[in-house]
Amino acid sequence: MGTGAGGASVGGSGSDQRVAATAAASPASAINPAVPDLPPTVKGMNDILSPEVSKWQFVEEKARSVLEAFAYRELRTPILEYTPLFVRSVGEDTEVVEKQMYTFPDRDGQSVSMRPEGTASAVRAYLAHSQWTREPVTRWYYLGPMFRHERAQRGRLRQFHQVGAEVFGLAAPTVDAEMIAMLVAMLVEMGIKPSDLELAVNTLGEPEERASYREALRGYFSNHLDKLDEGSRLRLQTNPLRILDSKDPDIQTLAADAPVLLDLLGDASKRHFEAVRSHLSALGIESVVDTKLVRGLDYYTGTIFEVKARIGDLGAQNTLGGGGRYDRLVSSLGGPEVPAIGFGMGIERVLLALAEPAEEFEPVLALFIAVLGEKAQAWALPVAHRLRMEGVRAEMEHRQASLKSQLKRADALKARLALIVGDNELQSGKLVLRDLATRQQHEVTEAELEGKIRQLVDF
Ligand code: HAM
Fold first, then answer.
1. 159-175 pLDDT tens trace
2. Model-level pTM greater than 0.90?
């Protein structure tokens, strides 16, 4: 069994894949000096436009197709929830609830929060719809914006987007392995090499085991009070596990010698964790045990995990996704005892880890219809419409412009073909279809048009 320091990849050896910067993840608000009075976007919240949006759509489509292959169904929940939902599930003493939530009184005076994550809402929906009475196992996924008032920087936003998955009703270690494998598969399908991913796993055991571990940690850190900063001293009382998560190098050194939860676990917890790791190996997924991995949300029990990217300059923001078991959350919110496990994956971070420039994800414009004169324009409108309804991506000119400028526009749009239509072509019924890459021209009738386009353009 390895430790956190080792850094084994999910599978295979390292690579030198580089990462391109994308505006999608830039923390800068869009300010346009040409429109000086326009309010900027809220810090850490970005517009997403083309070509970046194409890369987003690619990531979302890949995620959906993997999730659907694992038989997950989409769940859509509101962005606003009553604040106590997050306080009771994510936990009062967590950074997220203490410092990062967008919380405000609704106009009727009730405290509402913009969701900082998706698990709490999924569990609320599970309970609200008595989902356990409808089916023994519920597999849900979601895609959408989450909100945390964090220090905005590369890969860390205040409105960020997650793909998340949650499964309710299954306790076996095979499910933990399946869930982790699904996250890895998603990232690999998106184009990240397994060798550029690093999977860290740990277990938090049962709440009772964790309680005695907390005491062991309190004992250890109390002997080193002088080395703790103010925040860590506070955590010593509230949640000493979070000291293990500290970014302060001195505290990290101190934490390196702290007692390890894994050593204090009972047989059942140990066996479950070992089984998860061996199922992962059977799936060809290497995992590294990181005994300092605690995750920042209070609902976890048992297996927890994070997948980091080794590529690019994501810095401390290189965790692409993370999750774990939360077998007690459904019951702690008033429901039956239903085991559950899930993960959240940050879309912005995945985009930063994907080297290909956004332009490469743009859809192909099959046809640009250049029209000379009003008659041609009137002819082109229903023709373009029919082609579009047949799935041919097409644009036509609606302005009066010279053929030269229309063809320039077709090139700028990276159209594959241009159809050139003027009075002569309409009269003779012989249309000119030009391949904009090879400059080859083809004479076609209106009836032959769609077939010829399909022959020349790969859809
Ligand atoms: P989380 O670790 O807080 O877990 O977030 C999951 C992922 O969301 C992170 O690994 C990261 O990629 C992304 N993320 C988080 N905060 C930001 C941010 N400010 N900017 C950009 N990306 C961010 C959860 O949210 C849990 N609900 C996961 C889970 C589901 N556990 C069980 N089920």
1. 999 999 999 999 999 99
2. yes
